[in-house]
């Protein structure tokens, strides 16, 4: 058992990472299969879960959407951040800050979570999740901090 001092860096996980892992036809499947095989503590938004469920439902069917939810139930070290009026207020600040971007509430909530918790890694293929400077594991903004998360453990 590792001590709390050896705890790996927490990462934010976006819808695109879940899709890439669960959909073998995704071009980033191999990377996310490797990442999810031994994940650090992960956190995500309830809006990401809604977005992912809807994606699997529309792209495939109810069975895939249910399997996505079942996967989240067994994902070790996974924390789900709810979305209520106080989270909406934080998200509005992000939407306003990046008003020149086509940013969804789900993306803005992710940015707000990463900012508030000072998360230094984001599992996403969506460049908008890197707007605040948090390194993405995919998307052209991967840097040494993201690389260290991939190889820590």
Task: Describe the structure using short key phrases.
four-stranded parallel β-sheet, alpha/beta, 153 residues, disordered C terminus
Q: What does this protein look like?
A:
- The chain has 153 residues and is of the alpha/beta class.
- The chain has one domain: Rossmann fold, CATH 3.40.50.1010.
- Helices cover 51% and strands 8% of the residues.
- It is built from seven helices and four strands.
- It has a four-stranded parallel beta sheet with strand order 3-2-1-4.
- Helix 3 packs antiparallel against helix 6 and helix 5 packs across helix 6.
- The longest helix has 14 residues.
- The radius of gyration is 15 Å and the shape is globular.
Please count the helical segments. Answer: 7
Low-pLDDT runs: 1-7, 140-153
Q: Quick one: CATH superfamily?
A: 5'-nuclease
Subunit organisation of the chains? single chain
- What's the story with the biggest beta sheet? 4 strands, parallel
Integer tally of domains? 1
- Please state the average pLDDT score: 88
- Let me know the number of strands: 4
